[in-house]
Amino acid sequence: MRCTVLALLASFLVSLASSALAADPPLRHGVNLSSWFANAPRQPLTDADFKTVKGLGFDFVRLPVNPELFGFTLSGAPADRQKLELDKIDAAIGGLIRNGVAVVLDVHPESEFMADLEDSRDAEERFIGLWKVLSDRFRKYPNDLLVYELLNEPQYYKKARRYNEFIGKVVRTVREREPERLLIVNTSGNMSHKPVDALKALKLFSDPRILYDVHFYQPYIVSHQGIAHGFEEKQVRFFNKVPYPSRLVDIEAALKALAPEGSARKARRELNEYIEENWNKERIFSYLAPAAAWAKEHNVRILVLEFGVLRDHIDTDSRYRWIGDVRQSMDELGIGWAYWDYTDGFGLMTLSGKTETDHDGAVHFINFDDPKNRRIVDDGAYDALGLQRRVSGSTSSRRN
């Protein structure tokens, strides 16, 4: 009898150890559910979308959440005394998990919030308090199905030491509550630099359950071509139909297609730079490879949790080529990724039904509950992501 009990106990312990070893989500191929709980909140999703995401072969989603949309403020009372409306976020995480999709909960504020955060120690303490509230609410979810991304794209320009000190406090706060949860730390500073430069500015944690996130949109003349705002010092927002790879550029044709508000002189200079830098698959790989080598050297894991191309102003073939080249480079280097985004301006999905277009070119449904609404997979973008589809290529937006 005693032998039997010992054998059962040993079996249980082996099973427990195996479960622990398999407890982390793979975080290989994901997609961002943007413009639902962050950015412009105009793309609400339903269980049908969760099923589609799973069926398209994604093993996780990144769920950007702007805490200000849910009642949090850096200038108010401590977070545990603010009335935060977290039920919708909780329901979304629960719905995704029920459909077998792991979730990266990404705290994703706007730039003004970021500026306030880095200018005030009190604001940093309130943000740390926010993570106490979030951890206490969401710690009920299994470690293999929910990951925390502590702060998206922190600015802290030329303030790397302060950022490292601050994010260290955030990590310690969450760790006190959840010792085993996977955490993701973002690099700070200017995203136009090579990813490895941003990584080198981080103070690494000895905690093996921390991953590091960089974003990749280079060159912006491709990924953000025609964007409605930002890039005030560049002509990116005025370009139209500039192709990728850069060897395909006809400068005179590109200048002819330039928006009237653009400067032909500045645009010519930027087009020449784009051509001279010879942006193609090899160039993209050369930007990402040093980051992968850095991760291997330091025995840590990096992810690229944003990459994508606005679909309004670039030709579709160039868009698909860039997506494919970036994705293939990351796969070859063993870097997990999340495409930006599912159904908004950079979207993998297009919309069929009664829609309207916002000032930034993003399309959304006028009446979300219209049963005729459909989200349809952009096959070219999907094929560029190299996934294996297990469902049909459309989904209804209607709430159940």
Task: Please write out the topology.
Layout: H1 2-21, E1 29-32, H2 47-55, E2 60-65, H3 87-98, E3 102-107, H4 111-118, H5 121-138, E4 146-149, H6 160-177, E5 183-186, H7 195-200, E6 210-215, H8 220-223, H9 251-256, H10 264-276, H11 281-298, E7 302-306, H12 316-333, E8 336-339, E9 349-352, E10 355-357, E11 363-365, E12 374-377, H13 379-384, E13 394-396
Parallel strand pairs: 1-2, 1-8, 2-3, 3-4, 4-5, 5-6, 6-7, 7-8
Antiparallel strand pairs: 9-12, 10-11, 12-13
Helix pairs in contact: 5-6, 11-12
> N-to-C terminal Cα separation, in Å?
54 Å
Number of helices: 13
Task: Examine the coordinates and then state which fold CATH places here, giving the name of the CATH topology of the largest domain.
Answer: TIM Barrel
Please identify, by name, the CATH architecture of the largest domain. Answer: Alpha-Beta Barrel
Largest sheet: 8 strands, parallel, barrel
Estimate percent helicity.
25-40%
Portion of residues in beta strands equals: 5-15%
